[in-house]
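Q: Joint fold for the lines below.
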Amino acid sequence: MDKPFAITLDPGSSLANKTGSWRTFKPVYLDRLPPCNATCPAGENIQGWLFHAESGDYEAAWRSLTENNPLPAIMGRVCYHPCEGACNRQHVDTAVGINSIERFLGDEAIRRGWAFPKPAVKTGKRVLVVGAGPSGLSAAYHLARLGHAVEVQEAGPYAGGMMRFGIPKYRLPREVIEAEVGRILDLGVVLRLNCKVSSIEQAMKEGQFDAAFLAVGAHIGKRAYIPAGTAAKMVDAVSVLRSMEGEEPPMLGRRVVVYGGGNTAIDVARTVKRMGAEPVIVYRRTRDKAPAHDFEIEEALQEGVMVKWLSTIKQAEEGEITIEKMALDEKGFPQPTGEFETLAADSVVLALGQDVDLGLLDGVPGLEVKDGTVQVGPNMMTGHPGIFAGGDMVPSERTVTVAVGHGKKAARHIDAWLRGTAYVPPPKPEIAGIEKLNTWYYSEAPHVVRPTLDILRRQSSFEEVVQGLDETNALFEARRCLSCGNCFECDNCYGVCPDNAVIKLGPGKRFEFNYDYCKGCGICATECPCGAIKMVAEGN
Amino acid sequence: MSFQPIKFYQTGTFTVGNRLLAPEERSVQASAKRFNSINSGHRACQGCGEALGARYAIDAAMEATQGRLIAANATGCLEVFSTPYPETSWQIPWIHSLFGNTAAVASGIAAAQKVKMKKGERRNIRVVAQGGDGGTTDIGFGCLSGMFERNDDVLYICYDNGGYMNTGVQRSSATPPAARTSTTPAAGAEPGNVFGQGKYLPAIALAHEIPYVATATVADLRDLEAKVRRAMEIRGARYIHILVPCPLGWGTAASDTVRMARLAKETGVFPVFEAEYGEIKSVLAIRHRLPVEDYLKPQKRYAHLFGKTPRIDVIARLQALADRNIRKYGLLGKEAN
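A: Joint structure:
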């Protein structure tokens, strides 16, 4: 009533004007699947644990990591890190050194003595794990955390399986295996060494186990027919690597020919080089066709390992072998050329792959064995109810990381099976490809190169070749993560909205949209560095 | 092992906030308690660069003055969309002037403030004037030049979107060459706005040798906030010229507003610098230099350059202007960050 001159209305706020009604598209927050996570054979949430590492909270990072993989210090040394091959940062500069950060976290955990939380409830169920390799250990760990009583029976004198008897010390120091295995045993897992299971049915009956997970690996070296004189010395690669763990190193002589082109061949050649011998790898195809990882070939060559590409062994005699030159045909297969060459050789090591010892499965009904491996369903269960299998003994890529992934997957299905249900994995969100990101926002940063021991030291000792990161460069490396597809609370959406229609919920709680005022312009989605906002059409 | 004394924060200061930085190192806009000087519900188009730029600038000024601020606002988009009587989006003391006299109104407020201080007013209240490029470079130019030459204690902020947008996209003296507007159609031998016309107001402000002149864009928030903060530390006439892309007038996607501002800066089309008393003190370096096509192509106002027979000659002239900016202001600074 008592208004100033010419004023007839009370002043109002524009909040009365709900501009959300203009919208035809609306922004929604989502978590996309980062490419690293999508490719990890162990199913790690890499972006998730890097998020904690970025703020320097290494314990939280380690705890997040070990939700999926109990062996980070081992992984950080022997994993072939397909995650880095998928990393979106390679399109910006170079991939994030995920593997080296994982190793840093694993080493930090050992140094600080971080332990796993004890399971809250016991289920009263008993599970037998056969084999204390990566797959068996992983399954034992997950089953124990789910509250089951787990017993691991291992035929060998130490835990670790192929990590111990197949991977040389210069790649994986034994203390690291001991520390990470010890932490799993601290959960209450029982480990029985030198305990070979000869019949799985009998072992289950005797120990009153409700389920079993088989992970005996593939330890029998494959043979190839090579005409050989009586005095020719031929051994298989697995037994050479295994004997490195014993008291007496193998007697191979000075000139050692390694036959094969896989990682095991490289491991043997590098091992005998360290023992003072002169290894020559003979492989029938070319370097780019060799199954060994190229960086391992490169490291072997740097250390002075000789390689005869495109060659097969025709004959072995005492002190020398005959090799035949091969040529690749148009299909890429090696064909003999009829050209021969002799090579001095005190011994020949066959590294032609490994077979599985399936003796313990004799007479078990329902099992299917094909091409020397045990067939399992999508739930890792064999044809016999209650018996699951994983690792090198089932058809798959034979790496430590794949084995760890099998262990986890099997544990989830065993747990569900014991409860009389079925484990249904959550649906996978869409992949956060590089096109979903706005990489302008990320600071330029060079890749931290892991320092390597100088070449001479490497050739003469079994010290670790690749050294770890220290805290400064681990933090630096972690912060190179682009956090693909997952909000890392950079406040960009909150800042760039011309309509103040983004609500900041506080640290760790992310944001939400105020759809009363959001006009749907989409700036937030365009300017989100990591692609965690999507524009979706409004319904009617 | 060599020690790496690198401070590296993932996105550094490129993003609005950064959880890895200490709270005092974060931007005003990252704070949950920012002023929101211009509130939700305003009637600006989707993706309006001016609404965004105004909030960035005035929030920073409010922060710098602890909320003791009066703003005078020229007629233009900013006034029309924020304050249709009787509603307003402004959460600060705010006065609407005529189209052409905002600088004079602000000078008056500053003068009144001086008198009040003499009469015992203790609060130190500061004055901001703001307007679009039409109200600044054309219609309000005389009042602005007077404010500069008297060195009145006012920060004048010009939100430059290169034309009279809310009246139907007419050309202003800040419309860039070759751009199509409703008064410079894409027709004839030299389509769009004419080369060699118009004026670059930051340089005119520099020539007045006032205490502070700066340019900024909505794509570099931290730079913009630092400039407003610096301006509020200084007494006398100050001028900040902010590039605010206009989806309507430029013919760009509403979602590309910040991206367009970034491209303007990264191509050298819009130099970002600051100057004191007529001398340039610093420039915001280009991070990844790009050709002007990258900036021109997404804009419909330049579509006539990319028709059946692309106007390579015109694009080359625009590139030459950008190259001159890069040379003149030294925009390829050493530090990439």
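Q: Anything notable?
A: Confidence is low (pLDDT under 50) at residues 1-5 of chain B. DSSP finds eleven helices and nine strands in chain B.
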